[in-house]
Amino acid sequence: MFFSLKKKDKFSYIEEGEGQPIVLLHGLMGELSNFSSLTNYFSTRGYKVYAPELPLYSLPVISTNVANIAKHVAKFLDEVVKEPAILVGNSLGGHIGLVVCHKHPQLVKALCLTGSSGLYEKSFGETYPKRGDYEYVKRKTEEVFFDSAVATKEIIDDVFKTVNDRNKAIKTLYIARDAIKSNMKNDLKDITIPVCLIWGEDDHVTPPEVAIEFNHELPDASLFWVEKCGHAPMMEHPELFNEILHEWLIKKAIDPSTK
Question: What is the DSSP string of 193-236?
Fold first, then answer.
């Protein structure tokens, strides 16, 4: 399904459905389309689903970091959503969600992390891929998933386009390096809202030990494993992902049906 983008001031976002707000936060190389199945599912079950475009490439280079992207999301929650929301973040999006929860707890009702950075992650390796090296980008993109077929040509082409755009490549490096420095380990104990961890057992970017540490350090966390799955469970196993998240929301009395 095609979702149209809305514009309000400095924000560009998808908005579908009515009810309890869920805000979806994409990763560094992610797209809003990564959450298509989740958007379809929850927007027809009593939720208003928002998916903002994160300002990964629109901030000045000196301001391109995790903290400033999190400030953008906090303003989005305050000015557009206007009530405490459920945040769902994949990869960098999860990291951003953690920062928002830590700095602005009044804006968040619950958090779902899937393949989240914030503790440790492995991306393209020690060096950024050479410009024009399509096969390298293809191989590294496929490695994100357990099933390499999930990395369609469209997804690979988008990543290739990003790494060959000088401005985007520089800012991607800035964000990736800052994400490593912005380790959340000492802050996790202060995030007391319910957190749902949905993790691929074969995630090589944020491996299983990351999920285990999140589960141990967060005061109210629930960890769910997805078999034969890499870094993006909501893309590789969308139906199972939606089922896990929905049942968890019901159990935590956050789902509209429990009101």
Answer: S-EEEEEETT-SSS-HHHHHHHHHHSTTEEEEEESS--S-HHHH
DSSP state of 11: E
Amino acid at 166: R
Taking the CB of residue 48, how many other CB atoms lie within 10 A of it? Answer: 18
Tokens 């924000």, located at residue: 11
DSSP state for residue 62 in the 8-state scheme: G
Residues 43-61: pLDDT tens digits?
999 999 999 999 988 888 8
- Options 3.40.50.720, 3.40.190.290, 3.40.50.1820, 2.30.29.50; CATH of 6-258: 3.40.50.1820
Domain ranges of the chain: 6-258
State pLDDT tens for residues 74-83.
Answer: 999 999 999 9
| Element at 173 (helix H, strand E) | helix 166-181
Measured distance CA(207)–CA(200) in Å, rounded: 8
Matching residue, tokens 């939606």:
242
Q: What is the dihedral of CA 21, 246, 149, 125, to 10 degrees?
A: 70
Q: Are 47 and 20 in contact (CB under 8 A)?
A: yes
Radius of gyration of the chain (CA): 17
What does the longest C-alpha to C-alpha distance in the chain come to? 53
Buried/exposed 229-239: b ≥16 CB within 10 Å, e otherwise: bbbbbbbbbbe
